[in-house]
């Protein structure tokens, strides 16, 4: 769990299922480890503490900027420690039989060193770079977001059609169009054949006309709008790629606060969305509004954390290049350590025998030797679709809490290293790393020897970690299906790079916990159920049974108090039955309880027909239950 608060029903169902899995393996006699930990969850934790600052007015300062970076980070760390202690106490209260001596935290000293080591290694491998690219920007969090941190909310805004010289163009965002000077059409669109390659003047928002030109590109959808579109490279991922392809300038119209820049002329400083109506009226006054479609529906991009509309912006950021071919197919080099695994045979070979992170991640999932199985299987298709369309991963965040990027700059020089460079004048990159960069290392980071300082380099650290050799790759990762692309995919990418192996053999995905009516639990609805309160009232066993009995992989679970109360009665019946059996059993009959099902002999008694029937039923029960457990049912 994140160090942002208390356990909720989603954590409770995870703990219940995992505890059941682990206890079963221990009962079989398998060597088993179940590692507890918490995630520092940088963006989420900073957001919670910023709200706390505003509410409590700490030291007379209501924002992190007023408090200062060092003081603010101390506030966050103090909050995280308090939250961590509370979460561990709650986890114990839920009956989770974790290996507490192996507790790990994604922001403790061993994990901080690991993150720096991996950053440097990825940079040296040529798959990590700093560059100007368009990113998702949250104006409220004042930070970039990765693709999978963007949520979507359906809305029905007007879709505007404007006369643009001899063409009509369509857009839902007129406020971004001030400097659009390039029109793109499909090269085979008969309507625009004569216009391709031409240049002409266009009356537009400002008084001075624009000089526009028409180009062709096969990516244009002839059926959308009028089939002709102007390019806004600074505020659209698709337009940015077109601008890169055709060598077009990138002019920023909206700034980090969501306000219009000087490129918007007289509208400079205005909130972009608020200025939309006035911009349209100005175009209407010039006779440039062709018509407006009020039935247009699209998905608005919003921040998954605070629900603020996300703005695509060009920024200088750090990225992981997921398409860069860097690892030889036959020689599994490029990472630090090689663990046993069948060589990859199914990855693409577009660039000879070199593989990219995307290639490795695609080849990691399947039913072959050395591949991972996702349960239920339908999520494998979703994984492949997402991974095949994966763009470069933006890993820098404009946050103060988190793993600081291990890069230092001095004038035109740059230094990337595990420790700071020697000499004067170096300034460390102010940004921190995406939370998922460190969370992606979890399966091996949590198994490393915590006494990292005794190892000179990462290779020795790997070799000196017996838990890693014993337990990696992990047998089963169990988690909710909603973080398949947040966390699971990142662990696959990071583990393939660092260890040249899969992180786990199976991924078991449980569903979301909903209320008795099937609604998502929400504070605004008032239907949130606290598993700890219910445990105090009915017992942890009743809560756990209510969470996982009658469910199947990938299916959402319904939970209400009546269901928990019913299982409380069931638990009481089991307890009374067990107590009765144990008090009435003789020493000889007790030998039968928990004995080898293949050796049912007692010392003095011959079995009759009834006894044989009972034992046969017991054998069948053990067989059926074992098969169900092994199949993760």
Structure commentary:
By secondary structure, the protein is an alpha+beta fold. Helices cover 36% and strands 18% of the residues. It contains 19 helices and 27 strands. The strands form ten sheets. It has a four-stranded antiparallel sheet. A four-stranded mixed sheet has the order 9-10-8-11, with no helix packed on it. A three-stranded antiparallel sheet has the order 7-6-12, with helices on one face. β24 (474-480), α14 and β25 form a beta-alpha-beta unit. α15 packs across α16 (540-548) and α16 packs across α17 (561-584). It starts with 8 loop residues before the first helix and ends with a helix.
Keywords:
single chain; 633 residues; alpha+beta; 4-stranded antiparallel beta sheet; 4-stranded mixed beta sheet; 27 strands; globular
């Amino acid at each position: 769990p994140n160090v942002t608060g208390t356990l909720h029903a989603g954590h409770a169902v995870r703990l219940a299922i995992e505890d059941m899995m682990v206890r079963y393996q221990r009962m079989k006699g398998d060597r088993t480890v179940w590692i507890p930990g918490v995630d520092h969850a940088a963006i989420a934790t900073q957001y919670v503490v910023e709200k706390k600052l505003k509410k409590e007015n700490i030291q007379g300062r209501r924002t992190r900027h007023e408090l200062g970076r060092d003081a603010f980070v101390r506030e966050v760390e103090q909050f995280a420690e308090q939250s961590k202690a509370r979460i561990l106490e709650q986890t114990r209260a839920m009956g989770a039989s974790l290996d507490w001596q192996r507790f790990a935290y994604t922001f403790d000293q061993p994990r901080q060193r690991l993150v720096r080591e991996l950053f440097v290694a990825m940079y040296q491998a040529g798959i990590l770079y700093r560059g100007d690219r368009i990113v998702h920007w949250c104006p409220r969090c004042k930070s970039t977001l990765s693709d999978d941190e963007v949520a979507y909310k359906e809305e029905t805004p007007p879709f505007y059609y404007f006369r643009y010289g001899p063409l009509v163009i369509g857009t839902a965002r007129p406020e971004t169009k001030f400097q659009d000077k390039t029109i793109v059409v499909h090269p085979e669109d008969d309507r625009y054949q004569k216009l391709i390659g031409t240049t002409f003047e266009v009356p537009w928002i400002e008084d001075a006309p624009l000089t526009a030109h028409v180009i062709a590109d096969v990516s244009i959808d002839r059926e959308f709008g009028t089939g002709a579109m102007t390019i806004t490279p600074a505020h659209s991922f698709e337009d940015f790629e077109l601008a890169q392809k055709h060598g077009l300038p990138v002019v920023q119209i909206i700034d980090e606060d969501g306000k219009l820049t000087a490129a918007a002329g007289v509208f400079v400083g205005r909130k972009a969305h608020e200025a939309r109506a006035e911009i349209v009226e100005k175009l209407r006054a010039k006779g440039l509004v062709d018509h407006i479609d009020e039935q247009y529906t699209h998905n608005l991009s919003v921040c998954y954390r605070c629900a603020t509309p996300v703005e695509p912006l060009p920024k200088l950021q750090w990225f992981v290049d997921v398409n860069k071919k860097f690892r030889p197919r036959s020689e599994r080099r490029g990472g630090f350590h090689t663990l046993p695994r069948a060589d990859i045979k199914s990855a693409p070979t577009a660039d000879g025998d070199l593989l990219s992170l995307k290639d490795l991640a695609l080849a990691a999932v399947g039913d072959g030797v050395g591949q991972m199985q996702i349960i239920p299987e339908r999520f494998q298709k979703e994984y492949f679709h997402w991974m095949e369309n994966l763009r470069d991963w933006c890993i820098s965040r404009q946050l103060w809490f988190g793993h600081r990027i291990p890069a230092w700059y001095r004038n035109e020089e740059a230094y990337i290293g595990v420790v700071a460079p020697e000499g004067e004048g170096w300034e460390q990159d102010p940004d921190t790393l995406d939370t998922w960069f460190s969370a992606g290392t979890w399966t091996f980071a949590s198994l490393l020897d915590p006494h990292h300082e005794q190892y000179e380099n990462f290779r020795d650290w790997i070799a000196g970690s017996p838990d890693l050799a014993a337990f990696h790759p992990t047998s089963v990762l169990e988690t909710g299906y909603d973080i398949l692309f947040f966390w699971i995919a990142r662990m696959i990418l990071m583990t393939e790079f660092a260890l040249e192996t899969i992180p786990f053999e199976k991924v078991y995905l449980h569903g979301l916990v909903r209320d008795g009516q099937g609604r998502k639990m929400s504070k605004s609805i008032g239907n949130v159920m606290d598993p700890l309160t219910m445990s105090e009232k009915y017992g942890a066993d009743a809560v756990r049974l209510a969470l996982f009995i009658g469910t199947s992989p990938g299916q959402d679970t319904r939970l209400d108090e009546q269901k928990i109360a019913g299982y409380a009665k069931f638990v009481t019946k089991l307890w009374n039955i067990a107590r009765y059996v144990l008090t009435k059993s003789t020493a000889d009959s007790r030998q039968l309880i928990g004995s080898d099902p293949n050796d049912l002999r007692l010392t003095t008694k011959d079995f009759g027909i009834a006894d044989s029937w009972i034992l046969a039923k017991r054998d069948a029960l053990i067989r059926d239950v074992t098969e169900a457990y092994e199949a993760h049912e």
